[in-house]
Amino acid sequence: MKIEYQIEGGDFSVGGSASSGVKKTLKQFNISPLLLRRIAIALYEAEMNVVAHAYRGTMSVDIQPSCIYVVVDDEGPGIEDIEKAMEEGFSTATEEVRQMGFGAGMGLPNIKKNSDEMTLTSTPGKGTRLELKVNI
Fold it and tell me: Which among 16, 49, 122, 133 could disulfide-bond with 117, CB atoms 3.0 to 4.6 Å apart, if both were Cys?
């Protein structure tokens, strides 16, 4: 089963709706609550990274019998230093985003912790691609 969501950068009023939609769909498959929680955290963090840092993005979810495979592509400033961005507490979020309670620098580390596989690629000035897999 494949699902695709459009994510609008800067629109915090609907931030989290894509990850919530995936969680609602996955509940129908009787996935364990612990696994569902891991997936929801990873997808929420990925979605909010697009909202906080990019102009727009797409979350493509492929629900397979053995895993959930997700690709999040965004158009935005990209990530200059992926290794640095993976460090807990490192953030390039604006002061405005931080005042809203986001941008603590835990998004990418939380995605990695809650995924079985994660690949992050980025082209500065163009955007970022995040691929993650959670085994069922």
Answer: 133
What pTM does this model have?
0.94
- Over residues 28-51, the pLDDT tens digits come to 998 999 999 999 999 999 999 999
CA 91 to chain centre: 15
Alpha-carbon distance 54 to 69, whole Å?
A: 22
Helix axes 33-53, 107-114, angle to 10 degrees: 150
Phi-psi region of 103 (alpha: psi -120 to 50; beta: other; left: phi over 0): left
Place of tokens 């894509």: 18
Take residue 75 and report the two structure tokens written for it: 């158009």
